[in-house]
Amino acid sequence: MAINPIKATRKARLGLYSIGHPHYWTQFEGLHDRLVGYGKFIEDRLSAWGEVHNFGMVDDETKAREAGEWFNTQNIDLLFCHASTYSMSTAVLPVAQICRRPVVVLNLQPAERMNYEKTTTGEWLAHCSTCCVPEISNAFARADIDFRVVSGLLGLEETPAISVANEATTGHPDAIFAWQEIDQWARAATIIRTLQHGRMGFLGHTYPGMLDMYTDFTMIQSQTGMHVEILEMCDLARLVPDVTDQQKQAKREQVEEMFVMSEDSPTDPLAQKPKPEQLDWAYTVACAQERLVREFDLDALTYYYRGAPGNEYEHLQEAFILGHSLLTAQGIPCSGEGDMKTGVAMKICDTLGVGGSYSEFVATDFVDQTILVGHDGPFHVAISDERPVLRGMGLYHGKWGTGVSVEAKVRQGPVTTLGVTQTRDGQLKMIANQGTSTAGEILRIGNTMTPVKFATNPSSLMNQWFASGPTHHFALSVGHNAGLFEKVASLLKWPFESISL
C-alpha cells in the first residue's frame, strides 16, 4: 500500500553556472545564446533532484564574484560549473572562493563527434568544453577547492537548428553515464541539507555494554548538523492515555493492509500467532509513537529501554517494534538499541529512496555462500519482498517482555549495506558493501532476515569488513549504491570504505 510520509523530503539547493570567453560573443554570432541554452537544459535535468539556482553565463572575474555572492544569498549546497566552451580560469575560481561549497565541473560535449567537413571555428567552440577543464582543475587544486569532474555527453533529445552535428545523444552510453553521475551528486547534496535541518530523537538509552553503539551527541551534530532531542519514556507514556478508539481503529486498518498475521511458528515455540491483547496494545502504542514524532518534530529516532521487570515502561517498550516499523515506512527511520549512528545511516538511505532497514549479521550459510542479515525489528516495509508477517513473541531474546514482532525479507536483487562507524579520533566514517539478496531460506522466528551473497566469499568478506572497525549494525538498502554513498561521504567530508566492489 502507499503510505504517506510524515514530513516532506527536503530538496537540495543546487547552484549552476556556465562559463565561457567574452571575446567569442562578438566574434561568433549565436554562440552565446547556444551555450546558455545548453545550461538551461542542464538546469531542467537537475530540477528532478533539487531546487536549481542558475546564474547563467560567467565569462570574467567580475561576474565570477557576482555569481559567488549570489550563490551565497541562495544558500546553495553544491555548485555545478558547466564548462560550455573555453574559459579562462580567472573567470571561474572566484565563484568557488566566495561561495565555499563543493564544485562539480560538468565537461559535457554536445555531439558524439563533430561534422568535420562542415565545422567552422564557431561550431568547434561549441564543442570544446574539455579544453579549459585541466586549467580549472589546476586552479581549484592549488586554491584548495573541493571539486570533482564529470565528463561525457550532454544528452540532448534533439539537435539545435544552429548545429551542423548530431546532438541528439540522450541514449548514448556516455550521456547515460554522465547523467547517472550528475544525478548522484544532486541526490547526495539532498542528504547534506536533510541532515543539517534534521532532528534525531534519542529515547531512553543505549543498550548497556555495546561499546560500538555509544555516541557523543555533540559529535553527531558537529559532523551531520542533526540536532539530538533527548526524550524520556515518560514523554511517550503521557501520550498513551489520549489515544482514541478511532485512532486505534485507523492504525489497525493500516496494519492489516500492510502486514500478514502469522499462525504459530512450526519450529519455534516462542514465535506464536499474535494475541488480540498484544495487537491492541501495539496499535495503541503505535498511535502514541506517531504523535511523539509529530510533537517533537523528529526526522529520525533511536531508542532502547531497560528497566525494572514488570514496570510501566517495560510494558510500553514491548509494543515498540510495530510502531517503529510504521514510522520507518513513513520516512522517520527508527533504530533500536540506542544505535544513533545506524539511525543516521538509515536516514541517509531513506532520503535517497533506497530503503534502509535496521540490520546486523545473523548467521552464515556456507552452502549457499550467503550471509543472513536482519534484526528483531524495526523493518523498512517499502523494500519488503512481500507483505511482512506479524508474529507474537513469547519473549524478546536479549531483552525484556513479550509482544509483537515483524518477520520480513528484503526483496531479491541488488542490495547495499551502509554502516556509519567512528574512528579512533572521533571521525564518523561510512562503510558500504554491495551484494545480492537471494531467494534463500530464512528462519521463522519473528525477525527480519535476508540472505545476501557478496562479491567475495563470506569468510573473506567478513575478515576484511571487520578489520575496518564497523559497528555491528548497519542499514540494508536496495540497489547497488556504493558510488552514491561515496559521494555523500565526500560531501560530508567523512572517510569511505567498501570491501565488496
Outline the biggest β-sheet: 6 strands, antiparallel, barrel
Radius of gyration: 26 Å
The neighbouring-strand order within the major sheet is: 12-13-18-17-16-19
Mean pLDDT: 93
Number of helices: 16
Task: Tell the overall outline.
Answer: elongated
What proportion strand? 15-25%
Class by helix and strand content?
alpha/beta
Give me the CATH architecture of the largest domain, please: Alpha-Beta Barrel
CATH C-level category of the largest domain: Alpha Beta
Count of distinct strands: 20
Query: Gap between N and C termini, in Å?
Result: 34 Å
CATH topology of the largest domain: L-fucose Isomerase, Chain A, domain 3
The figure for the number of domains is 2
Given as residue ranges, the uncertain stretches (5+ residues, pLDDT < 50) are none
Write up what this structure looks like.
By secondary structure, the chain is α/β, with parallel strands linked by helices. The protein folds into two domains: about 10-195, 3-Layer(aba) Sandwich (Rossmann fold); about 200-495, L-fucose Isomerase, Chain A, domain 3 (Alpha-Beta Barrel). It contains 16 helices and 20 strands. It has helices spanning about 20-25, 30-45, 60-75, 95-100, 120-125, 135-140, 175-195, 215-225, 235, 245-260, 275-295, 310-315, 320-330, 340-350, 460-465, 480-490, and strands at about 10-20, 50-60, 80-85, 105-110, 145-155, 200-205, 225-230, 260, 270, 300-305, 335, 355-365, 370-375, 390-395, 405, 415-420, 430-435, 450-455, 475-480, 495. The strands form four sheets. Strands 12-13-18-17-16-19 form a six-stranded antiparallel barrel, surrounded by four helices. A hairpin with a 4-residue loop joins strand 12 (about 355-365) and strand 13 (about 370-375). It is elongated. The relative contact order is 0.10. The model has no long low-confidence stretch (mean pLDDT about 95).
